[in-house]
């Protein structure tokens, strides 16, 4: 009898240890709201929206302890539209993220799959777009610098360092997977960040070569390492670089982010149509310089305020359009997992000439004039 009890006890201990060494977590976020836009192709519009701040998603995240500070890790993350139940990211099952790799407490992590680039990883957290404080509709025009995570990189291998006294760095490479075309349809990026008490600084660079091309009349695109399910632009080469900082004091945080996006060789705008067109030609080259000043403040542990102003100086089709956008958000937490929010955006663009572009708040469509206003009331639930 005693032997039986001892065996049962040891079995329980080993089972508990094995369970502690390996884990799989189901997680997700659902963002649903009602959005008003004063001008969408010449008409006002009320619509039910999914992901006005944060894209609705569910995912699986796992880790297995291999000993000596080494772990096997994976993430599979699906994006979907809560209003109609369809998959996002071109209908992909795990379109937001899908990767597997090894992680070391001492040396960092190496992962392979469909992943975010270094601009998103390192610089993105310093802007309001792409975060819980602004997200989709706070993006810089057309999300030209990808700080809102509009596209991911397929066929990629990524290295992310461990945290060395506040210093982190990393790099990513996306393969073309083409025989005899190693330099075509590829992407690469690198970034670095440093945290010292309340101060955070970061910088990052991204480049894609021959990631795709677009026919501005038909909207037909070629595919590349950067997926074309939501890519804002098609071009022979796209380069993004920038830097930023933020500083926290008490319940407040203020920040500044600068980015520049340069596009060469057959540029087309693909994620925003004009009057039903599938794509808009932007000439042989285009450039966007974005200057964002942002801040957020916790009035109480449950109530937060966030705001930013972004000035974008662009070069498109020989014109010099200038975008001014002001964004405001307030959110109230009903619990640790559920909150309600109200946010609004105003954009004014000038200097568009005969390019045909109007004001364009990300995710709500194109205005027929140089001004656009949008407002959303919504609820978010995390699990």
Automatic annotation (TrEMBL):
Organism: Caballeronia concitans
Keywords: Cell outer membrane, Ion transport, Membrane, Porin, Signal, Transmembrane, Transmembrane beta strand, Transport
Protein name: Outer membrane protein, (Porin)
CDD domains hit by this protein: gram_neg_porins
SUPFAM superfamilies, A to Z: Porins
All residue ranges annotated as the Porin domain in the record: 8-351
GO molecular function: porin activity
Keyword Transport in annotation: yes
Top-rank taxon: Bacteria
Pfam families reported for this sequence: Porin_4
Self-association and partners: Homotrimer.
Nuclease in keyword set: no
Signal peptide: 1-20
InterPro entries in UniProt: Gram-neg_bact_OMP, Gram_neg_porin_domain, Porin_dom_sf, Porin_Gram-ve, Porin_Neis
Compartments, record wording: Cell outer membrane
Bilayer topology: Multi-pass membrane protein
GO cellular component: cell outer membrane; pore complex
